[in-house]
Design brief:
elongated; 11 helices; mainly alpha
Length: 199
C-alpha cells in the first residue's frame, strides 16, 4: 500500500489522506485512480473556465495536474483570445497607473492622491470593468482629501498640516480606499498586465 500511495502522489499533487481513500475506493489500482481523478478535474476545469475538454486536458497536463495553475492559465489564454480593446485604455495610461502604484508602495496611499496624473489614472481604471469599483472608491477618497485640504498652503504651519492629515486619516472614504487599494495591489497589477500585453 505504501508504494502505491507514493506512486499515486508522484503523478497527482494530492494530500496523503485523499490518496489513501482513492486507492481504497479503487482496489489499489493506481491507473484507475489517476484516470478517474483526471476526468473529474477536467470536468471541473471546463465548468470553471467555459473551455472545451481538449483545452482543459492540454493545460491540465502542461501544468503537471496542478488544478489551480491550469485554471489560471486557461483563463489568461481565453482572455487574450477574446480580448476586446477598450477605447481610452492605452499603454501610456497603463504606464501612468504603474507609476501611481509604485508611489503607493514606496510612500503611502495618502500621498498617491496628489499624483499629478491621478485623473488619467482614475479615468482609465474606470474603463476596465473589474477595476471600476476600486476607481470609484479612490475618487471618493480624493474628493475627501480635496475638501479637507481646501485652502491649505505650503506656507501654513506644520501643525496645520498634521491637523488636516489627522482629519483625513479619520475620513471613512479615505480609510476604505486605503484598505481596498492595499489589498488589491496585486489584482490591479494582474488586470493591467492582461490589457498591456494585448495592446
Amino acid at each position: 500500500m505504501k508504494e502505491k500511495i507514493i506512486e499515486l502522489r508522484k503523478i497527482l499533487p494530492i494530500p496523503m489522506g485523499e490518496a489513501i481513500q482513492m486507492l481504497k475506493d479503487n482496489d489499489n489500482d493506481v491507473e484507475k485512480c489517476v484516470y478517474l481523478f483526471k476526468a473529474k478535474s477536467i470536468k471541473e476545469i471546463q465548468s470553471l473556465t467555459g473551455c472545451d475538454e481538449e483545452m482543459a486536458n492540454k493545460y491540465y497536463e502542461a501544468e503537471k495536474y496542478d488544478f489551480n495553475r491550469a485554471v489560471s492559465a486557461i483563463r489568461e489564454d481565453l482572455f487574450d483570445k477574446n480580448y476586446m480593446h477598450i477605447e481610452g485604455v492605452t499603454k501610456e495610461n497603463i504606464s501612468l497607473i504603474y507609476q501611481w502604484l509604485r508611489l503607493i508602495e514606496d510612500k503611502d496611499f495618502g500621498l498617491s492622491l496628489d499624483f499629478s496624473y491621478l485623473n488619467i489614472v482614475l479615468d482609465t481604471l474606470l474603463l476596465i470593468p473589474p477595476l471600476k469599483e476600486t476607481a470609484e472608491t479612490i475618487r471618493k477618497a480624493k474628493d475627501a482629501k480635496d475638501i479637507i485640504f481646501e485652502g491649505y498652503s505650503d506656507t501654513d504651519s506644520l501643525d496645520e498640516f498634521v491637523r488636516r492629515y489627522k482629519k483625513l486619516d479619520d475620513s471613512e472614504e479615505f480609510q476604505k480606499a486605503d484598505r481596498i487599494v492595499n489589498l488589491k495591489l496585486t489584482i490591479i497589477r494582474e488586470e493591467l498586465m492582461r490589457h498591456a500585453r494585448n495592446l
